Hints:
A: Rossmann fold; Rossmann fold; 3 domains; 22 helices; about 40% helix; B: five-stranded antiparallel sheet; elongated
Amino acid sequence: MNGADAIIKCLEAEDVKYVFGYPGVAICPFYNSILESEIKTVLVRTEQSAAHMASGLARTTGKVGVCAVTSGPGATNLITGIATAFADSIPLVCITGQVNSSLLGSDVFQEADITGAVESFVKYSYLVKNVNDIPRIMKEAFHIASTGRRGPVLVDIPIDIQNATIKSFKYPDDISMRTYKPTVKGNAMQLKKLISALEKSKKPLICVGGGVALSNAQDELLSFVEKHNIPVVSTMMGIGTMATKHPLYFGMVGNNGRPYANKAMNECDTLIMVGARVADRAVNQPDFLTSNKVLIHMDVDPAEIGKNVGPTIPIVGDAKAIFEDLCKEEVTASFDEWLNELNEYKNTLVEKRNPNLSFVDPKVFITTLSEKMDDDGIYVADVGQNQIWSCAYHIVKKGNFLTSGGMGTMGYSIPAALGARLANPNRQVVAVCGDGSFQMSMCELATIRQEDADVKIIVFKNNYLGMVREYQHYTYKDNYSVVDLNDYPNLEKLATAYDISYYKVKSNEDCESMIDKMLSTKGSCICEVMIDPYDTVK
Amino acid sequence: MQKRVLQLLVDNTSGVLSRISGLFSRRGYNIESITAGVTADARFTRITIVTSGDDDILDQIEKQVAKLIDVRDVKVLEPSNSVYRELALVKVKTVASNRQPVISLAELFRANIIDVGPENLIIELTGDQDKINAFLNLLEGYEILELARTGIAGLGRGIENVTYL
Lengths: 538, 165
């Protein structure tokens, strides 16, 4: 058995179903060994997509996503995908081939110091120098990626190590890492403090971030808030933690959030932030959070607590374990009055949109689409105006809402949607992007076809990089610079080129029938939605 | 701005020093000095870092360092409860005529003359940073040709909280 066989055995032991990647000489031993395995491989069209596909799989299954690419440019192309996963704490194991270990450091063909290059975007990285270390390193890599605060781990394996004979293969049952022991259970004293703060509170609020879904704590959170009638808001990464129409859910906060959600944040007297970083998009004045309220900050990563704002009550631990414990506690308080107040805000603070009726209003399209989607449908939003509209108008029922929240990586939606679909072949998957972000990952249409996957791709077409155009509209008084996308490509012809269906939505009246048609037809499609080039999210 | 001395016990893996220094540079934290050396147990390295910032930043530095997978333990070495030492090697330009006053000064500081050349001396001095700074100040009238300082190494006093080698 050689090193490459050993890596595959490790992936099998971790129950990996898919490897997304792109071969090259330095990773060829790996791709040769994988032929003997049941693990399916997906040939992406550019390496960045491999990480996004693995991310789509990870976020919809709770498992670690795996990608494998070659050395040099293969590895460096992967970096944006890794950084995207890191910013959103998505568990990935990224395997990169590397040049012969005896040549390391001599700048040979396709050599790149990838462990050095990704240092600030990974939870940890390994450069394998001894074939017998492979089982331990792979075990640790999966363990690190999937525990504590999740994140990507990179394993760089020189080609000679992949080809070297391993003495004996045994996948370790346990981890013995001296230095890595994330806290899971919340400190009992701190939980007591939380309960007593709740009892003193008249206006409590929970703000959920991406951490709740990452620890699979949605049910525990729901039991807790339903038991005590506590209202919930979310960050962008927290969307989908609760159903949008749940009576206790009051929308996304932040500079692109719902006005009533922000009002709730401002007026609550006790705020529980869970698995959220208190980053600038959600909270642009962190000091304000502590000036008039008790702030309770829960996170599995102690370094997030106090980074942007100093909480009154810090709680380190995994959201699932914490809410399990909290559900056992009794709270004697009623928040009905506060809920009435919030519902009043929800009904009265409606943002005014002034849609141009010669185009499709994104609000109408997204609302109609999400109403018609399956309850457990997966909605992947890209980055740009489409993302802000998706956050505002998509109605999550029991499905997932995926987007690149932290890094804001354009081109995320199509590959992430494909990864999600392959991992969930029975669930409906929709990717929503703009004409800018679409073109960044357009090459993956070929992968979608090759995998015969059913991904509905919605393209909001306005011939502009809309988000930047909007910024230039407000900041530079319509002095547009490098935002005109022209009219190409012709999406209908493109759909023909890839043998997928094409739909065009030109007006609000078209939305319903076109969405019905699109969702009822089997197979992937491009649905081009003509929107006003001068529409804004604000 | 305050100074804080951190003592880290880390896994002795390749790249561990670059992981730590990389964390400081990308997050914009200050490193005033960093020293590293293997402990009595070859699996571990002990690193002493002198850093500075306001309280919030210093707390954040501690947490971010503790978060690194290779870092086994982070301690703050409080001045009142720790000892710090730094080594300095000073090459001073001297000729026969002005050699004696430099040697006297070195003796005063219990420094060692470890090399003598026709036109220079190399002085080895160990002490806390104040002592080394004071010595260098007194050398002002002479020409310092080269200076090498190690940055401080530190240990907490006493036998409490000693978990590792």
